[in-house]
Amino acid sequence: MEVWIFILSGVLLLQPALTTPPNIILIFADDLGYGDLGCYGHPTSLTPTLDWMASNGLRFKDFYTTAAVCSPSRASLLTGRYQTRSGVYPGVFYPGSRGGLPLGEVTIAEILQSQGYETAMVGKWHLGSGLNGTFLPTRQGFQNFLGVPYSHDQGPCRTLTCFPPDIKCYGTCDVGEAPLPIFLNEEIVQQPVDFTTLIPMYLEFSKSIIHKAVDNQKPFFLYYAAHHTHYPQFASAKYTGTSVRGRYGDALAEFDGSIGELLEAVRDNGALENTLFFFTSDNGPETMRKERGGSAGHLKCGKSTTYEGGLREPAIAYWQGKIKAGVTSELASILDILPTIAALSGAPLPNVTLDGYDLSDLLLLGHKSPRSTIHYYPPSIDANIGIFALRVGKYKAHFYTQGAFHSETTPDPDCRITALLAVHEPPLLFDLDMDPAENYNLLNRGIPEDLAPVLNEILQVREDFQSSMEYAESQTNLGNDPSLKPCCNPECTPKPSCCQCKNGV
């Protein structure tokens, strides 16, 4: 693929003046591990666009999601609030879920739409659909939506083609569900999805949104929530067979190429100097999939665990002429994206409790991050237990640990499902600057005198956080209703296999 080298003119001002609200392209990968990109150390990943963005933008080394599974991390990203506040826990939504992201939650899209932005979402929603589309993106501030309401493995896939000309998807996915639907706003336009043409369709739609907004002299917000590199992997003809990393590498190459096309579209519309690109991922890799499941690099474990491999993610911010190229070890989180975008766009913050910080001074001026703590929730949140781990500065304490099915197959027994819930008193303590792989417990032989104040501070931060957290009613525990499974021809029989159509976009 082609990668563009943009020559920056001038220097980064000490006090950058944002005379017009910036366009925002928020790119969210799916199950992409900390070690999956070339710029994060993978030796055979073909990711030239993201590598270019990393070398010309700000690459984060200590960036975190709030959950090691899909739905809760996406809720936190869009609201700037822990998933416990919105009720998007425990676990994830399914095709027939009664619940979803509550409409009372204020999303980035709603904030920006109120500021005159053209708002669009492409890809994976996974925050509920509900009765008559109650929870779809179009009800949450997105004027335009093309995508899937949940994960693309939440529907039978064995007979579907994942790679052209006719390479079937590897695995069975969720049997007994309706075929995977593609929505255009609130209408199903394809069921089941054609994986071999899906990303080109997404890109054509995204480019039209960008062009329309620029042509109408409106700022735009595009939330590009990719399916890559979640299992089962897929790709279009352009990327099939291009990577030495096999099918996973082909899917990753298509993801990287799609970002390149978004960059090109913004450049061709003359909007590059006023567009912020922010890329990260929802959670760590499914190591249970072996070579098809991604890599956490040197970090411990992966998806569904509260070890670093589950929640520390790659992240890159690129804005030509505004963000100075570099690498940062400052702490940051997906919680910080909403308040940062609000500050950059001049939008007021919603009148709710936010858990994020404005990182605009970090991005534009290279200042320190206002964030000093990271709280690690497990997928199966229990209000009586609370967080499993806590990072304060460079130190991370594990109060509870547990392996997970998604993190199977690695040699580390701590990652496996056989590693049952364990309570640690005193907690396990790691210096993540020295030991990001969490190999060496600093409290293995008692509490050293010099670490006693560190432990006391961590325990106090934990107590303050736990006592102040308000747990909303669980949306995922509202259960499932088979009649809510999306079907393009709801009167057909037998369901759900009869739900098939292709109306076109």
Automatic annotation (TrEMBL):
Localization terms from the record: Endoplasmic reticulum; Lysosome
Cofactor(s) needed for function: Ca(2+)
Transmembrane spans: none
Domain of life of the native organism: Eukaryota
Entry-linked InterPro entries: Alkaline_phosphatase_core_sf (IPR017850), Sulfatase (IPR050738), Sulfatase_CS (IPR024607), Sulfatase_N (IPR000917)
GO CC annotations on file: endoplasmic reticulum; lysosome
Boundaries of every Sulfatase N-terminal domain copy: 22-346
EC supergroup of this enzyme: hydrolase
Main location (coarse class): endoplasmic reticulum
Residues making up the signal peptide according to the UniProt record: 1-19
Catalytic function, reaction form: an N-acyl-1-beta-D-(3-O-sulfo)-galactosyl-sphing-4-enine + H2O = a beta-D-galactosyl-(1<->1')-N-acylsphing-4-enine + sulfate + H(+)
UniProt cross-references to Pfam families, sorted A to Z: Sulfatase, Sulfatase_C
GO molecular function: arylsulfatase activity; cerebroside-sulfatase activity; metal ion binding
Record keywords: Calcium, Disulfide bond, Endoplasmic reticulum, Glycoprotein, Hydrolase, Lipid metabolism, Lysosome, Metal-binding, Signal
Family: Belongs to the sulfatase family.
PANTHER family assigned to the protein according to its UniProt record, in alphabetical order: ARYLSULFATASE A, ARYLSULFATASE FAMILY MEMBER
Subunit text: Homodimer at neutral pH and homooctamer at acidic pH. Exists both as a single chain of 58 kDa (component A) or as a chain of 50 kDa (component B) linked by disulfide bond(s) to a 7 kDa chain (component C). Interacts with SUMF1.
Function as written in the Swiss-Prot or TrEMBL entry: Hydrolyzes cerebroside sulfate.
Protein's recorded name: Arylsulfatase A
Annotated organism of origin: Leptobrachium leishanense (Leishan spiny toad)
Lineage: Eukaryota, Metazoa, Chordata, Craniata, Vertebrata
